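Researcher: Re-running this chain for the archive, since the previous output was lost when a drive failed. Same request as before.
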Amino acid sequence: MTVMISSIFLGFLLLTLEPSFVTIATISVAPSIDPKTEEVMNVIRLSNGYEFEYVAASGALGFDGQGWPWEQPLRVLGLFDPSLFKPVTKSLTWKPRRGNLRWHDPFRAVRFIDGGVVNAVDLTNLGFDWWLETVGRRLESGRQSLIVSIYTEDETELRQMAERLNDIDLAAVELNAHCPNHHGDFHHNAWQVVWFCELYRRLCRHPLILKVSVLHNLNLIVPKAEPYIEAIDINSVPWSYVFPHRSPLRRLGGGAVSGQPAQAVTWSILRQLVNLTDIPVIGPSVWRYQDIQALRGRGAQAISFGSIFLRYPWRPTIFVRRDQRENGR
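Model: Regenerated structure tokens:
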């Protein structure tokens, strides 16, 4: 009863927060594409047989791919369906990292901005061992398998994480080669990024996805990493690359921008990658429904939903269902 009342209340709250919600939810269905006459190319197929078209970006659905507690009432309303997405875990580090996120005060490190989000979370997580025992070993084989995101600048840590992930059924592993909120040196060393990709492939059976950023020398990294990676993801953008004025999170280093304000940067990186390599690229920074087709038009072979889950957690589910209807998925 409590859940039902909470869900009804949440439904009214959604209508208040987003006046266009009713229009989005009741959109008409367009004619489907006949799969016999038009091949759907917007799917990334990995060497282990897993495939995906829609991705929940790192951390968007928590550490287990099922979403955060505040998103769960939306399931009752039919507005939140994690099974539509291939989820990427929040990035894990070998040791627990406090970062800047405080669960009692989340807006200390996260702020909503016009058309997007800026965050300075800085890799807050309880560490690789915690995830492995709490989530990883409890995963059911073949059931909406996760993509696990890992971050490290230490070769020994990478070896240990890569080897231990062999025991778990995963869709893939994402190597986060740069956290915009962590001021390490990893992203400055292109050869180290390439070496980590090669080393990972020597040690781990799961396909590797490389997550790059605007700070990387992509012309050097990507051609050298091609033999070891099966897809490329694009990270959020440091505040100073998007806005000339000071960040509301300047006391935490400025933070990273995602959503619509980041599109000029992330979509430019997407185009650069598509022209640089045949490795499939995941299109980032979705904020409006039309962004899905805009990304496909720029060469993205899968679509990633990130901070939109935080600001409008119902939108990704609605957008994907509409896309499936209108394009005969």
